[in-house]
Amino acid sequence: MANRVKRNKTGIPPTAQQDIDVRQTVAGIESQPVKSSPTDVGKVDEDIDTEQEAIETGIATEGTTAPSRRRRGKRSKAKRGAEAAGNPPAGQTGAGAGGGDAASGEEDEIDAEAVMRKYDRESNTRIWEGTPKRVIQIFMALFSVYCIGMTLFSTTLPEVRLSLFLGFIVVIGYLIYPANKKKVRTNYIPWYDVALMVVGAACFFYFAVNATDIIKLATRIQPIHVVIGVIGILVVGELCRRCVGLPIMFVFAALIIYAFYFFLARNPDFYSALRSIIYRMFYTTSGIIGTPINVCYTYIVLFIIFGAFLERTGIAGFFIALANRIAGWASGGAAKVSVIS
Asked: Is the CB of residue 241 less than 8 Å from the CB of residue 249?
């Protein structure tokens, strides 16, 4: 190193005093003890480069290749310092950081999903993957097409249309919502959920097929009809508990108790009261298949399907961007954007 510093490209030797200064400076820097810290190793290399560059700048008078050699030397020393510090090269740092960001994003998404499953009952759904997930998605897509077709073209009785709709809702509900949020396994549904799903949906499908005959019977329905109605009501109540929680069950129980009190006060015959309650709750449009289900079947489902279509096709983003462009700059722009979009 001393010989390289002593003589530049032009071959002009430095003075004796400069030669002594160069040797003492380089020897002093190189003899400094290097600590175990990788940061100190890089710092020592930088100090050597700085001192050497200052000395060579004072000595050299001409030559264009020296700066290039110094830059190459500094790059190689910087690379050695980075390797000693345990840091990846510059080309690998970006890829590593990108992979770390992706992994961090996945972990955040998993954590958010776990939190939602813990505190939000509606987010506590079964985990379907692979072929079962694809089958359920296809079934839901067909159900959406069925709702659109029945709303636009069907002329059957409301009892038939709403019973079929609620029967499919029972199937989808038990496929999505487990009985206990702490016992959820991937691609698994227990046998009792399958039984509830099949029996509950069968009750509504039975009423849809035999709606005309049952409507003619009115309150003179047969014991089999009473049993079917009881099962259907209980299955829907359990599905509501899974989706909403226990508070809805308390409201349901209070209303049932009030209904029994009303009928038993007029007629102490328990079976007669039960038959009247089941008929009104299950077989008429004043009960389960009443106005809320009719609104859901007619408007809410179509609204949700249309919204999902806009979101998947990107049209929703276009309308939001257009509204921001029109009214986002004005005072109260957020409210105006909401109205326009």
From this structure: yes
